[in-house]
Amino acid sequence: MSELWDNMGPQLWPAFWVTLQLTFWSALGALIWGIALAGMRVSPVPVMRGFATTYVNIVRNTPLTLIILFCAIGLSYNLGVTFSSTLKTNNFWLAVVGFIAYTATFVCETLRSGFNTVPIGQAEAARSLGLSFTQVFGRIVLPQALRAVIGPLGSVLIALTKNTTIASAIGVAEASLLMKSEIETYSDQLFLIFGIIAVGFMIITLTEGAVFGYLAKRFGVKR
Fold first, then answer.
1. C-alpha span between 163 and 122 (Å, rounded)
2. Does the N terminus or the C terminus of the chain have fewer Cβ atoms within 10 A?
3. CA-based angle 26:210:174, to the nearest 5?
4. Helix (H) and strand (E) counts for the chain?
5. Longest Cα separation, the chain
6. pLDDT per residue over 82-101, tens digit each?
């Protein structure tokens, strides 16, 4: 065990730091893109509603592994999309793009459920005062919907954190890739290696759950 820890221990923080970075940037992008999709889904413009509905239904039902591989192979190798001159950094950002594209669909649907908590009379009153759809959405509906779905958005973030393990499929050096490499070297200590990585993910996800639980109680809409 000491030999395993001497080899694996120094690599744990760098690996989980990559996991945290993947989670942060993907969550930020997914929130922005998810809000845009949610706005399009309730938009009065049929083309925008059709695009958002089609996008959400297709991407949400596509395996995430395929999306990540498409970003690595389709975007990078076939279309030449690059974010960095180094393969390691480029694959990191390609994985982030894949996570954003996928997770945004769940953010969108979560927000749509939050829209139902906003009394329709508020939107009608705003429109009667001459506010545009964008103004009604951004100033009245969205802020209340976000407060109503803080808890569910926390669940989406936790799912995203666990989904970052798929980034190892394109060589991103996050926690699950470290686990795979250590298992190849110390196959007789499989359960110990798995337990160490699992504890790391538990610490991250339980912290996220506690933070969003507090935010839901502190800022959630009380009706």
1. 38
2. C
3. 35
4. 10, 0
5. 71
6. 887 787 888 899 999 999 99
221 pLDDT band, cuts 50/70/90, is low
Nearest to 209, CA basis, from 167, 164, 166, 159 = 159
Query: In b/e form, how buried is each residue of 67-89, taking b as 16+ CB within 10 angstroms?
Result: bbbbbbeebbeeeeeeeeeeeee
Q: Which residue is associated with the tokens 């506010």?
A: 131
pTM: 0.91
Q: What are phi and psi of 171, to 5 degrees?
A: 85, 15
CA distance 157 to 141: 22
> Cβ of 162: how many Cβ atoms within 10 Å?
14
Q: Which two tokens stand for residue 37?
A: 């999709």
User: Which contiguous run of DSSP H or E holds residue 40?
Assistant: helix 2-41
* 204 touches 19 (CB < 8 A): yes
State how far the Cα of 112 lies from the Cα of 91, in Å rounded to an integer: 32
